[in-house]
Amino acid sequence: MIFMCKKFVIGAAVLATLGTFVFGRDVVSYVKTAGNSVRQAVKSEVPVDFEVDRARKMVEDLVPDIRRCMHVIAEQQVDVETLQSEMQETELAMKQQKDAMFTLRSDLESNETEFVYASRTYSKDDIRSDLAQRFDRYKVATDTVKRNEQILKARQKALDANREKLENMLSAKMDMEVQIEQLEARLKSVQAAETVSNLEIDNSQLTRAKSLIKDLNKQLDVKEKMLDAEGKFTGLIPVDTKVEEKRDVVKQMDEYFKSKSGDRVAVQ
């Protein structure tokens, strides 16, 4: 193996040196041009039907990408729906907290000194402290809702972009499938035309048949000439042939009995 590698390296070095000696600085350009020519020549020899199958395989290979895109879209859709549900619950809880804060605020503005909630008694200071905590939490919750709205907007934007991407991929896949079907139809049409144009008819059999018919006619002509020469004309209207007339037996009987007995013949 090492010996083969050495031979390959030495051969490459010899070719590089020889190419540089012959073509000078343009050796790289010559190598690229030669490589491109070889590549084009090999590509031109590839059958069209093979290229059509290759195009169909490339379109089929899009299916895994499409399924991955569909999976990502499904996950994003679930995330969006989950976040929307959480935001609705948060907004409902904030509305309840807001109502509670205004209730406590009304208590603070009243002239009462004690307040009873859930069988427990609270002072104004308790109410003020609870209201302050509720208000701070409400403001934090409001900021959280605003951030979630931005996150939801970004997720919906990404979801819409991926949906559009999926639709474009499906549309492109369908268009390419139609184009491949059209290519196959055109290829079959071209192949049929090539088959007809390349069809070679064996005229030798037809020529031999014509020659045989000609020889047979000649033989028959010779036989007729020979018969004519012998006085046996053929192929003419048989003028001399007499046709025997049909016998009228009834008339003959009538004539016979009248002439023999003189009796009247009864005609039934």
TrEMBL record:
Keywords: Coiled coil. Residues 73-100, 149-226 form a coiled coil. This is Chromosome partition protein Smc. It comes from Gimesia algae. The lineage of its organism: Bacteria, Pseudomonadati, Planctomycetota, Planctomycetia, Planctomycetales.
